[in-house]
Amino acid sequence: MRRIGLCISLLVTVLVMSACESEGEAQTFADCDQKTVKQTAAKPMSSKKKQNFQALASERQLAIVFSSMIIVSEAFDYGIGNPEYFVRSSMTEEEADIAKENLESIKIESKSLKKQNSEAIALLEKTRNQEMIRSEIQQLTENRAAFFEITGRMINLISQVTPKNAKTTRQQLDQLKKQYTQYSAESVKIINSIVKKQKADKALFERHLEALLQKQPGQPVLSELY
Questions:
Q1: How far apart are CA 179 and CA 81, in angstroms?
Q2: What SS3 state is found at 27?
Q3: What does UniProt give as the signal peptide span (predicted)?
Q4: What is the distance, to the nearest Å, from the Cα of residue 61 to the centroid of all Cα atoms in its chain?
Q5: What is the secondary structure of 31-93 as a DSSP string?
Q6: Helix (H, G, I), strand (E, B), or coil: what is residue 164?
């Protein structure tokens, strides 16, 4: 399974949280061997008792917000990375069709994934001590908007690839991948800053994050909150 940009899986996220301060260290690239993260949308959980988000400890609040955003990033990593892998400078009609077919899933899921990201940002604005991170919330909001603008351009390029424009498409995708990776790395740095400014216990936050992502791979827990 191929993917682009930063590996924003649980392992890399936790490692970045623990050790990486520089942009160079934060940029772990997509070809690392990771387990496939399921990209299904959240299922209704009406049978479960809903939790009051604002009553939760800071560490759990942040883990809920960022686990949801990680899931969104994972979905785009795989959803674009798989078809992007098939785009070459020289392609046959069949190869172009394969790339487009592999793109269908993320094209369908893109709208709901962006909504999930918006819901996570909205929750971030309700976290404890949120007044201390207003600047970071704005930075993260702008970062994610730029991230989605890049993914949209990549999806559009791949959906229109043909043997005739393959070389140009491949060159444009290579440039966009650099920007994709840049915005992904920047988002991790902003997350690091938020955790620090919230004065959250980083070790406890990371344990909550790990538990959430292992509990329901590919599914956010936003539907369990009120």
A1: 14
A2: coil
A3: 1-19
A4: 18
A5: TS--PPPP-PPPPP-TTSPPB-GGGS-HHHHHHHHHHHHHHHHHHHHHHHHHHHHT--SS--H
A6: coil
Higher pLDDT, residue 215 or 14: 215
Contact 120, 191 (CB under 8 A): no
pLDDT at residue 30 tops 60: no
Contact 61, 128 (CB under 8 A): yes
Q: Which residues, at least 6 apart from 84, have a Cβ–Cβ distance to it below 8 Å?
A: 2, 4, 99, 154, 158, 173, 177
* Amino acid (one-letter) located at 50: K
CB under 8 Å, gap of 24 or more: what pairs does 157-164 form? 158/80, 158/83, 158/84, 158/87, 158/99, 158/100, 158/103, 159/100, 159/103, 159/107, 161/87, 161/91, 161/96, 161/99, 161/100, 162/91, 162/93, 162/96, 163/90, 163/91, 163/92, 163/93, 163/96
Q: Whole-angstrom Cα distance, residue 226 to residue 221?
A: 11
Question: What is the CA 168 to chain-centroid distance, rounded?
Answer: 27
pTM: 0.78
Residue 101 has pLDDT above 70, yes or no: yes
Closest CA to 80 of 103, 109, 112: 103
Whose structure tokens read 């009051």?
52
Residues 119 and 68: beta-carbon distance below 8 Å: yes
> What are the φ/ψ torsions at residue 6 (nearest 5 degrees)?
-80, 145
